[in-house]
Design goal:
The chain is an alpha+beta fold and 194 residues long. The protein contains 4 helices and 8 strands. It has helices at 2-14, 21-24, 27-33, 57-62; strands spanning 50-54, 66-72, 82-87, 92-97, 128-136, 152-160, 163-171, 184-193.
Length: 194
Amino acid sequence: MRITVAVAVLALAACEPGKPAEEATSPALSEIASGNPASSFMPAPVGPTRTYEAMSKTAISFTPGVLIMTPTQQKSENLPSGMVFAFGNGIIYETTATPGGAVQGEKPFDWTNIIVDPAGPVDASKVEMFSVDKETVPPDAPNGGLCAKTSFLASYVVRSPGAEDITIAAFQGDTWPPKDATALCGTFTYANVH
C-alpha cells in the first residue's frame, strides 16, 4: 500500500498543477501523443569522421593536403544520411547518400576501368554513391572544383593491414547512372595510414 501511494505521489508531482498529464509531459512526448509524425523521427547515429591525405597525382594536383569526411544524420524519415567532403584547399561538398546508386539502372556504370582494387575486381555493391546538395569552391581552386559543377561523388575503400585507401570519383550531369563516360570528371585517391 505504501509503495502504491508513493508511486501516485511521484506521478502527481511530475504533472504541473492545473494542466492535464498529457500537457505536462515533455514537448517531444506531447507531439508524439498528438500524432505529429515529424516529431517522432529520431535520426540514426552516424559513424566517426575519417581523415585522409591526398595520394594520387590528380588528388595532389586538385585537392592537396587533407580530406576530412564527416557523416551527417538523416534530415527526415524519408531521406538517407549524408557526408560532408572537406578538402584541404577549401573545396567542400555537402551530400546525401544514394543507397544502391552504384548498381542502379538497366545499364549500371562500369567501375572496373576507373577504380583499382589490388584484391581483385571492384565490387560495385561496395561503391558508396552521394548526390551533391551544395558545392563550395574557392575562387583559386584548380579547375574550379572536381568538376565544373559536381553532381555526384562515388567512394570506394580499399583496406590492407595498417592502411586504408579511398578513391573518389566525381561526376557531372543531372542523371544517374550517366548516359556516357563523359560525365566522369576524374578519380582522386587518398590514403589513411593507421
